[in-house]
Every structure is written in C-alpha cells, then in structure tokens.
Amino acid sequence: MARHQAGEPVRITTASASRDEDIAARQKRYLLAMGFRTLCFVAAIFVTPVWLRVVLIIGALVLPYVAVVMANAGSTKSDGFALLDGTSGARQLPPGDDSGRGDGQDHL
C-alpha cells in the first residue's frame, strides 16, 4: 500500500483517496469507456462511409482493453513539488535536555 520509501516524508496533499472513492472512480472510468464502445457499435451500423464504419468497429474492439487498463490503473497524486533534503536556513530548536526532568524548567 505504501508507495513511499521508508523514511520519506508523506505530505497530505499526496495522500490517496479512500478505497471506496478509488473503486467508484475506477467504475466510472470503466462505464464511460464501455458506454463509448456501445456508441461506436451503434454508430457503425448507421454510418454509410466504409472507412468510418471500419474505424468505429476497430474502436469498439479496442475499447474493452483500454477500459480494463484504465480501470486497473491506480490513482496517484503528486503536487509537483519535490521535498529537498538538507538545511533550509530556517532556525531550529536546540536539542533537548537529556537530564530526564522533562518539566521544561531550568534547574540550577
């Protein structure tokens, strides 16, 4: 499930959709492609130019493969910004006190 390498930060903008949303989107893509395939078959019956009829029939024969590939393709999100390693020049908090007190107050 995790597409990120170990130790690589994950940004919320690149988080995947829920499983139900992903399945619903895949079903919509599949049904859209198969609906277009049906239109190709019906149009091939009624068009008169032979070249157009051949193109529509070829489209109707190829579309099931395309529909399955589109339905099986997982959705990936990327915001297009790379996370860079290294110092950013921003100020950082100093390392914590390892004395074990943990009360956040300085003791002399």
From TrEMBL:
<feature type="transmembrane region" description="Helical">
    <location>
        <begin position="54"/>
        <end position="73"/>
    </location>
</feature>
<dbReference type="InterPro" id="IPR021449">
    <property type="entry name" value="DUF3099"/>
</dbReference>
<keyword id="KW-0812">Transmembrane</keyword>
<dbReference type="Pfam" id="PF11298">
    <property type="entry name" value="DUF3099"/>
</dbReference>
<protein>
    <submittedName>
        <fullName>DUF3099 domain-containing protein</fullName>
    </submittedName>
</protein>
<feature type="transmembrane region" description="Helical">
    <location>
        <begin position="30"/>
        <end position="48"/>
    </location>
</feature>
<feature type="compositionally biased region" description="Basic and acidic residues">
    <location>
        <begin position="98"/>
        <end position="108"/>
    </location>
</feature>
<keyword id="KW-0472">Membrane</keyword>
<keyword id="KW-1133">Transmembrane helix</keyword>
<feature type="region of interest" description="Disordered">
    <location>
        <begin position="86"/>
        <end position="108"/>
    </location>
</feature>
